[in-house]
């Protein structure tokens, strides 16, 4: 079974309060040197068939219409290696 | 500035209702052939200094104690290429 990963992140110009909360908490916990944190979503999709171009087109369509809100989010689709 | 990505996913044996909701919705929306969906979190950390082994050790520590709940979640830390 092949795995395709869809990463969904807020666009850079959109405020990310979750990421900011993490970023502000890190120094208090002793972790310094981290300039910025952004938090997003990761979807792991297990495909029944082969991961060919047609499958990836369908997954990009699903990501665009359903997994991501493309008004405020960017997404990337990639096949995960080493499965 | 170097980017390190921390992916946090529920352990395989832990029920993932968010992923299940996505999986069940996909066929209704016309996307078939997807056997399983898991949903997790993706953190993008922008480091001020170089991404050396010491920095990665610190980030793994932060991921283990703070970004992930290791009772129910697994995490991976990796340097993002092509920045």
UniProtKB/TrEMBL annotation, chains A, B:
Compartments reported by the entry: Cytoplasm
Enzyme class: ligase
EC nos: 6.3.5.3
Reaction equation(s) it catalyzes: N(2)-formyl-N(1)-(5-phospho-beta-D-ribosyl)glycinamide + L-glutamine + ATP + H2O = 2-formamido-N(1)-(5-O-phospho-beta-D-ribosyl)acetamidine + L-glutamate + ADP + phosphate + H(+)
InterPro entries the UniProt entry points to: PurS (IPR003850), PurS-like_sf (IPR036604)
Keywords: ATP-binding, Cytoplasm, Ligase, Nucleotide-binding, Purine biosynthesis
Record's function text: Part of the phosphoribosylformylglycinamidine synthase complex involved in the purines biosynthetic pathway. Catalyzes the ATP-dependent conversion of formylglycinamide ribonucleotide (FGAR) and glutamine to yield formylglycinamidine ribonucleotide (FGAM) and glutamate. The FGAM synthase complex is composed of three subunits. PurQ produces an ammonia molecule by converting glutamine to glutamate. PurL transfers the ammonia molecule to FGAR to form FGAM in an ATP-dependent manner.
PANTHER family: PHOSPHORIBOSYLFORMYLGLYCINAMIDINE SYNTHASE SUBUNIT PURS
Protein family: Belongs to the PurS family.
Protein name: Phosphoribosylformylglycinamidine synthase subunit PurS
């Amino acid at each position: 079974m092949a795995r395709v990963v869809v990463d969904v992140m807020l666009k850079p110009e959109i405020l990310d309060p979750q990421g900011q909360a993490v970023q502000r908490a890190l120094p208090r916990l002793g972790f310094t040197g981290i300039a910025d944190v952004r938090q997003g979503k990761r979807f792991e999709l297990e495909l029944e068939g082969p991961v060919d171009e047609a499958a990836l087109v369908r997954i990009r369509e699903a990501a665009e219409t359903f997994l991501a809100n493309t008004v405020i989010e960017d997404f990337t689709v990639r096949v995960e290696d080493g499965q």
